[in-house]
Here is the input.
Amino acid sequence: MSLFIKDALLDGKTTSILIEQDTIVGIGNDLPMPIDVNVIDASHFAVLPTFANMHTHAAMTLFRGYGDDHPLQEWLNEWIWPAERNLDDEIVYWGTRLACLEMIKSGTTLFNDMYFFPDAAARAVVDSGIRAMIGFTGFDFGDKEGAEKLKKDITEWFDNSKFKVQNSKLLTPVVAPHAPYTVSDSTLKWLSNFAAERDLLYHIHMSETQKEVEDSLLSHGTRPYRHLADLGILEQCGERFIGAHSLHLDNEEINLLGQHHVTVVHNPNSNLKLGSGYRFMYNELRDAGVNVTLGTDGCSSSNNLDMLEATKTMALLQKGWRGDPTAMPAKEALQVASRNGFKATGINAGKIEVGAKADLLLVDLDNIGFIPNNDTLSNYIYAAHSDAINTVICNGQPVMQNRKVKDEATIKEEAKRVVKKLIKK
Amino acid sequence: MSLFIKDALLDGKTTSILIEQDTIVGIGNDLPMPIDVNVIDASHFAVLPTFANMHTHAAMTLFRGYGDDHPLQEWLNEWIWPAERNLDDEIVYWGTRLACLEMIKSGTTLFNDMYFFPDAAARAVVDSGIRAMIGFTGFDFGDKEGAEKLKKDITEWFDNSKFKVQNSKLLTPVVAPHAPYTVSDSTLKWLSNFAAERDLLYHIHMSETQKEVEDSLLSHGTRPYRHLADLGILEQCGERFIGAHSLHLDNEEINLLGQHHVTVVHNPNSNLKLGSGYRFMYNELRDAGVNVTLGTDGCSSSNNLDMLEATKTMALLQKGWRGDPTAMPAKEALQVASRNGFKATGINAGKIEVGAKADLLLVDLDNIGFIPNNDTLSNYIYAAHSDAINTVICNGQPVMQNRKVKDEATIKEEAKRVVKKLIKK
Here is the structure.
């Protein structure tokens, strides 16, 4: 069935949008109306692209608020890691369903996941109806046996995954080594070769803290991104490289990243909350040719998966630390949070255009954040919250209408149940 | 009629709360039930104190999103000031009603207002059922005639205000000179004497930008707070002094502020968005004995009046710029955003205790920000948004239940109507 979005506000003008299958096929006021069509009255709504959450650990929604406000190492050692030993397929499934529910309710239709039990996560995404990059993650901490096991596991998963994530149109499998300080150089390079052979994205934590940079200088004599370049990974991966955080960079690294056209993911709420830093070099990265995207990180470090909130934090933080109210205007912030993320994944979305994938959302202009509506985009980014989002469409299919999402009550109950298996107080 | 809040979650335990008139008179599980009582089933809710928004320009809600992302002087000269010439009583009334509606929906029951047409603002607050400090503001820019007019106007207002704000139990009239760089020293001092004679609060913009500090050093040879101390204003006002922003301070100023036990108001979203700065000296001010409170500023600089969002920004920003995840834990952030504000105003609220004023709110634990509920306070401050707030009670009276606020549709329509008189595009 076709989908006809009638009389929505788009870039300040009222227009209608016709969707066939997964694609926007018409935008205008005199579109031909198909016979078998589902019409959405959007006369009180503005239409905007959905968000791409480019770095998260979805199932960690279950850790929301657990061990907050403690020093980093204490929090990991005494809170998160002991509980993570209890993880299983069922816990990750419901944790990821909860994450997808939260992301749908805040306008996200694509996320880049890095966590354990990827088959369970993939199944949860398919059952939720949105898009994800499912990362197969791991670390070897320089241990040879660990490295062999990781290589064996990842090969097996890509060859034989039970849920055949490779075959879903909404899923993209990704190679996701944890970080240069938890994975040995030889394994990092082996994974880069593996990703190159199979044309896969390569997602990794990079330069999140100043300490990582200092440790890299001590052990390798070079900064983390220079080290990855020396291993040939940046060149080999190029546009398939996604560096999460990428917060502590020098000019040489910024130029390197631009030269190889990589993607980086800013995680402002996580960086602030964990005290990792705040001077994200947005303008410099953009000008160097880097594809800058946005993420929330997992709920154990940023507490929610709300990309609209993250977009506001990102835009305000750029203005704030630069002392410049014109730094990162609303329009550019939304592009980072939406279009640039889809671009990294090779999905033609993050824009409301004929020919683009139908990933879009409708915001309720009766929400108080839009009153008065002097500027719809300013109101969306700077004033409104995600409860203003009424409808979310992913790949041509409505996944939320009137703020109702399929299975919401069940997902919440199951999440409350499985968290008791995970966190045993 | 009494109000009985049944089975709410309070500090991790289920309990009930009895309110008589404007006061919390009982907390426990075996409270005597009065005969004439309104019972609220709070079995899915947690109870928390309401917010005190300690610095705003309420009617500027009408400027939401107007002229965003422009340099400061261009924004003032070409956007805000020309439009402000159109202000009248009716515009300020509906702008303030809209502000009150937004604040109620995000859990605020007290705000400290500094804007024009204070009688209209006062009337809007009374009609909304929440508390406000209504500031009589003004500037003389060193002009003698202007100074005389300001003194005459303020005396007349305090003596004869049409709406007799002095007599409302929910309103506190305040002396609110704009700033040391817009009001002459002699007028600042005259207003300080005026406030002392009548035991009034003294609310003023202080050290919001680095430029102000530099200008003060040039014209007075001292920094702004030192200058106010030299005029005898800090000593004379003491606890009645409320310094908005107070962002650019040196150690001597911090000690001065502590010595006089003044109140300062942090406005993190506004400071970031306008590029004013981000290193708010919370720990230093607290340790010096200053009463630190929180505000949103007006919607023309921070775009919404959501104190829950401001609380999160404040807490994250302290952790971020200090590089310390233990800086400003959730509990302390809420105290700044609530109890400290009420304290500055002399209202016994911002806490859920027998004998305190009944200003409290109920959050819906079925909201996704509270799932799972490993830590209610962490979830409230770091994960949830204000749409989780179901019920708001001010001075013993419900002003929102099930997210419904009196006159909401009318207020929105009237705001949309009067904004056309204000902003003539």
Notes: The CA atoms of residues 268 and 314 of chain B lie 6 Å apart. Chain B touches chain A through 68 residues (CB under 8 Å). Chain B has a mean pLDDT of 95.
